[in-house]
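Query structure, 332 tokens:
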């Protein structure tokens, strides 16, 4: 409980400094996103910690030898080889020769990938085309700490972009902005801010998550310059009143304008009454607060009575069920 109270105090301090937010942190531009890549490969050079056989691994080894001009007659089995899935993320404007970080994960019964080397592996996109290749020595994050997750490794700069995505971004006549956390109030404010700063009706909020922006004539073929300007506009983003509860860790995070109505709660040795005044009677702690009390003030008052995080969760859930707490509660 000692750690719980300061958390809410810090939360309250942050809220006073976050009245406005850059559009860069609120929206994404349609079409500007990373694309996942995936491939299948072999890791060699393991110190007896590989798959030790298996249909997939053995077949892959045989095909690899055939590609290299060898023709083994018998099935090749080795504990120094592991079958793996290789993943990476292709940047929106990834160019040929650009390096990518890749993640390598065992799909067989290998006990560790430490010390292994990934053979050249093609990485495909969702359309089945090869966009990058990956290879190189694996890193499991240190021999001591890496032992806990030794079947997953990384290769920093282990991938190379071989094919670019075709995007004629600078020729666009309009762009679409998607709000990360859809909200009608925020969408209306963004529309107003862009039109005000650009000096015309260029932005239109079509719903709570979408802002369509027409490229002004004087920014044609200068879309990058326009977006660089727009993404630095600052808007006061609105958010719904919500309390997020993690029952496994006893953590509560509250945000937005949360309202408490007149109510009374009896929980174990404590009675909470939202109306005003305070008193104590025997072993029962009676806490009275004003209806305008904020969640931060309420949590501090409850913690002062020795309320545990588990009790706080139960109290907030009961207040929500009764209709006295005007906020959404999300369990994670």
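Result returned for the query:
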């Amino acid at each position: 409980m000692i750690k719980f109270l300061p958390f809410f105090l810090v939360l309250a301090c942050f809220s006073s400094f976050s009245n406005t937010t850059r559009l860069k942190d609120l929206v994404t531009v349609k079409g500007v996103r990373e694309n996942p890549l995936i491939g299948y490969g072999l890791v060699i050079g393991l110190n007896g910690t590989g798959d030790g056989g298996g249909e997939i691994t053995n077949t892959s080894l045989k095909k690899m030898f055939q590609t290299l001009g060898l023709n083994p007659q018998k099935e090749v089995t080795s504990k120094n080889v592991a079958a793996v899935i290789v993943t990476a993320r292709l940047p929106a404007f990834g160019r040929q020769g650009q390096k990518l970080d890749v993640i390598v994960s065992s799909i067989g019964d290998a006990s560790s990938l430490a010390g292994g080397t990934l053979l050249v592996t093609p990485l495909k996109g969702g359309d089945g085309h090869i966009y990058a290749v990956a290879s190189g020595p694996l890193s499991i994050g240190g021999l001591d700490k890496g032992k806990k997750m030794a079947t997953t490794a990384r290769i920093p700069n282990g991938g190379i972009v071989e094919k670019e995505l075709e995007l004629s971004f600078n020729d666009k006549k309009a762009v679409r902005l998607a709000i990360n956390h859809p909200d009608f109030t925020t969408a209306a404010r963004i529309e107003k801010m862009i039109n005000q700063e650009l000096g015309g009706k260029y932005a239109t909020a079509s719903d709570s998550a979408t802002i369509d922006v027409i490229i002004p004539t004087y920014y044609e073929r200068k879309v990058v310059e326009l977006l660089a300007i727009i993404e630095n506009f600052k808007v006061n983003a609105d958010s719904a009143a919500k309390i997020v509860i993690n029952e496994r860790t006893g953590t509560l995070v509250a945000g937005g304008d949360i309202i408490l109505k007149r109510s009374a709660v009896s929980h174990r040795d404590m009675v909470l009454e939202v109306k005003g005044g305070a008193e104590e009677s025997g072993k029962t702690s009676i806490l009275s607060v004003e209806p305008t009390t904020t969640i931060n003030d309420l949590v501090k008052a409850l913690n002062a009575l020795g309320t545990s995080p588990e009790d706080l969760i139960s109290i907030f859930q009961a207040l929500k069920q009764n209709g006295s707490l005007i906020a959404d509660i999300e369990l994670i």
